[in-house]
Design a protein that fits this description.
- The protein has about 140 residues and is of the alpha+beta class.
- The chain is built from three helices and five strands; from the N terminus they run βαααββββ.
- It has helices at about 25-35, 45-50, 60-75, and strands at about 15-25, 80-90, 100-115, 115-125, 130-140.
- A five-stranded antiparallel beta sheet has the order 1-3-4-5-2.
- The longest helix is centred in the middle third of the chain and has 16 residues, at about 60-75.
- About 30% of the residues are buried.
Length: about 140
C-alpha cells in the first residue's frame, strides 16, 4: 500500500488530524504480553508508588506507538514512515478508575525535505502535561 498524500499538495504547517487515545490498565496488560515488558511499574500500583511514581504508568514504547498512529493514519501506509523518534518527558499515569488515561496527539508538517519526504512534528499530552518531547517522523510521500 502506498501513501495517497502527494508531496506537491502538502505545505509546511499542514496539520494532521488530531487523535485521542484512551489507555486503560487492560491495555497495559495486553501490551506487556505483546512486548514482554512485565515491569511492575506498568501493572502494580503498590510497587509503582514504592519507587516514587504517582501510580501505574504506561509503557513508554506504548505511548510512542500511539503517537505514531497519527502519522501512519494520515499517510495511509505505515511503511511510509522512514524515521521516527521521541524523548520521553513525562510518564502517562493510568489510574485504576475504570476510565484510565487519555493521550492526546496532534501533528504538523514542519519541513519539506528532499526526495519527496516531509518531517512531521508531533505533540503528545496526557492530563494537560506534555509526555513526549522532540517527537518527529520523516514520511515518504507520493
Amino acid at each position: 500500500m502506498a501513501t495517497s498524500i502527494s508531496y506537491d499538495e502538502v505545505e509546511v504547517g499542514t496539520e494532521l488530524p488530531a487523535r485521542s487515545f484512551p489507555v486503560t490498565r487492560a491495555d497495559l496488560v495486553r501490551y506487556a504480553g505483546a512486548s514482554g515488558d512485565f515491569n511492575p511499574i506498568h501493572w502494580n500500583e503498590r510497587f509503582a508508588r514504592e519507587v516514587g511514581l504517582p501510580d501505574v504508568i504506561a509503557h513508554g514504547m506504548f505511548t510512542m506507538a500511539e503517537a505514531a498512529r497519527v502519522v501512519t493514519d494520515w499517510a495511509g501506509d505505515p511503511g511510509a514512515v522512514v524515521e521516527y523518534g521521541v524523548r520521553f518527558t513525562r510518564p502517562v499515569v493510568v489510574p485504576d478508575d475504570g476510565a484510565g488515561a487519555v493521550v492526546e496527539v496532534s501533528g504538523k508538517v514542519a519541513a519539506k525535505l528532499d526526495g519527496r519526504r516531509v518531517r512531521v512534528d508531533l505533540t503528545a499530552t496526557s492530563a494537560g502535561q506534555k509526555v513526549l518531547g522532540m517527537s518527529r517522523a520523516v514520511v515518504q510521500l507520493a
